[in-house]
Every structure is written in structure tokens, then in C-alpha cells.
Amino acid sequence: MKQEKIVLTGDRPTGKLHIGHYVGSLRRRVELQNSGQFDKIFIFEADAQALTDNIDNPEKVRQNVIEVALDYLACGIDPAKSTIFIQSQIPELCELSFYFMDLVSVSRLQRNPTVKTEIQMRNFEASIPVGFFTYPISQAADITAFKATTVPVGEDQEPMLEQAREIVRRFNYIYGDTLVEPNILLPENAACLRLPGTDGKAKMSKSLGNCIYLSDSADEVEKKIRTMYTDPNHLKVSDPGQVEGNTVFTYLDAFSRPEHFGRYLPDYADLEELKAHYRRGGLGDVKVKKFLAAVMQEELEPIRQRRKEFEQDIPAVYEMLKKGCEAARAVAADTLSEVRKAMKINYFDDEALIAEQAARFSGK
Ligand code: TRP
């Protein structure tokens, strides 16, 4: 049988999605969805994973499940083309994780760089919950239960994908070819890989208050761009400026396209020309920020509008999620039957087994 091409990716529903998620992954998902090059697309909310470090705050996860679903729909993820589902509603994922736990050692998990930094960030150290510690295993189950071939995520997820690939190899080696090794698909350029916050800090994060959300109003976006971090040494317009580490230019790397110049800044042919002028001196921050605002509003306005429309019928969004969960569950259940068969724990659908045992005990 020809290998199907299957995309799968997910997000922890711990907050509304911001433009870092958008340029890092959401925009690409919509392109993949509409490319016609994939047989199936699965996009899911990793609520059970979100609970691994929010166990005392289930309300936060519950509230954000609908926010993230709205963000997905607003960006153009289309339930007619992609299956959108919620991790906790697929019990097969727990079952698969449980079997995978026998294939991974404690020391292998301890070496996972993402888990290492997250443990430090959360001051978990020795009190780390087992569920949090083992989430790379559960993530491998998320991916392999759907036989995903292509997983579009940020580079921080690379160790998770490596872990999943190892588990697949080990499983297939022991139990025979059953699961599919997934490939990571990273964002196209450095700016998209890790979009900094509006304050220039390395990461956009809710706790730092440096995010631009997909659900922000046009005014909020305008204001956030106006106060955005640039080059602190670029004091007068005539001063030469630095483009590297200048958030406004990083955002332009992520958002601007050549055609934007014709529309909003016809004095420059492209971003390289604009950067060259800024470096030379004589180009003010205000002008560059105005251009960035125009470019970003053009991309964000349709998303905002679509989000508002979906907000008008929340029960329909839950219904869409429910249908997605049912469809996803059927796929995961198929994989789990294959897994149980490979692991020889399919006692009741194997007539040969029963006959063989009967023969053994009757002494024939
Ligand atoms: N760990 C991912 C994140 O924090 C979310 C996630 C869970 C995921 N399971 C996944 C992503 C499977 C891709 C594939 O963003």
C-alpha cells in the first residue's frame, strides 16, 4: 500500500494564540491544508498535555479550548479539510502511551533538552509530576496513533519528534512494522522560527505581556506596534540604525512580502532596500512602524473578522469539535487494533489463538 501523507500538529490550550504561533505554525498549516498534497490533516488541542503543568487550574484549560478553536477557524483551518479534535477525548492515546512507556528509559527522558529546560523554568526539580516528565511519550502517542508523516512545529519540539521516531523504531523492531516514523517540518525562516515579543525579548509569552494576539483589535495592534522595541541607539532619524535584533525589522522579515512595498511604501523596492536605508541613517522608526502596521493589519484583519463571525455561534464550534473528536477517535482506534495485534494482546479477535490453546490443553 502506498504510504499516505498525513499532517498532524497541536497546541496546548493555555492561552489565546498570538502572532508567534501564527508565523511559526498556523499560517503553514493552512497552506498545507490547501495544498492538496496531503491525504489527511489533523489539528488538535493538547488539553491533557496542558494539564500536566496546570493540574490545579483546569478552568484555564477549559476556557482556552474554545479560544484556540476560534483562533484555528479564524486563521482558515477548515473542518471540511482538516480534522480538529481535543486530545483528552481520545482514550486510545492513553492506551498507546501506556504501551510506549515500556520502550523508553528514565535516563532517556531526563536527557530530553525540552523537558530539562521546562523543569528548570517551573522549578519542578525533584517534585516533577510523573505525567509531566513522561509527556514526550504521550506526545509520541499523539503523533503515531494517527500515523502522521509530517509534523509542522517550532524548533523547540525537535527533541519530541526525535523521541517519537525512536519509539517507532523500537516498536517496529520488537513487534513488527506497524507504526510510521514522523518527520518534523520547521518554519521557513529564522524570524518565523522564533518571533520575539514586542519588547524585543526572545520569546512571546503571556506572562511577559509582550504578545500580539490574533484576537487583538486593530487599535490594540496599532498601539503595540507604536511602542515596539527597536534599536535603542537609533535616537535621531539621521543616526545609522541597527536592523539585527530590531523587533520591527524581525516582524517585517516574518510578515512583509515584496508586493506590500508597492501598496504601502513605493519609495522602496523591497525589504533589503529599506534595511539598507535604515542602516545608513536618515530613516525614522515611525515610518518603518507605520509600514509594519499596514502590512500586519492587512494580514490580521481578515482573521479578526472571521473570528468575530465564528464567535456568533459558539454551540456550532463545539459541535464541530465533537465531530472532529469522533472522526479522530475512529482513526486512533484502527491504529490501536493493529498495535494490540502486533503486541499479541488481541485475545478475542484471534480464532487461531483459541484453537491453538484448545489443542494444547487437550493434548492433541
Ligand atoms: N508540545 C506541543 C506544544 O507545546 C503540543 C503538542 C502535543 C504537539 N502533542 C503534539 C505538537 C503532537 C505536535 C504533535 O506546542
TrEMBL record:
This enzyme's EC code(s): 6.1.1.2
Gene Ontology annotations for the cellular component aspect, listed alphabetically: cytosol
UniProt xrefs under Gene3D superfamilies: HUPs, Tyrosyl-Transfer RNA Synthetase
Keyword Protein biosynthesis among record annotations: yes
One of the record's GO molecular function terms: ATP binding
PANTHER family: TRYPTOPHAN--TRNA LIGASE, MITOCHONDRIAL
NCBIfam families: trpS (TIGR00233)
Listed name of the protein: Tryptophan--tRNA ligase
Species, as recorded: Paraprevotella clara YIT 11840
Source taxonomy: Bacteria, Pseudomonadati, Bacteroidota, Bacteroidia, Bacteroidales
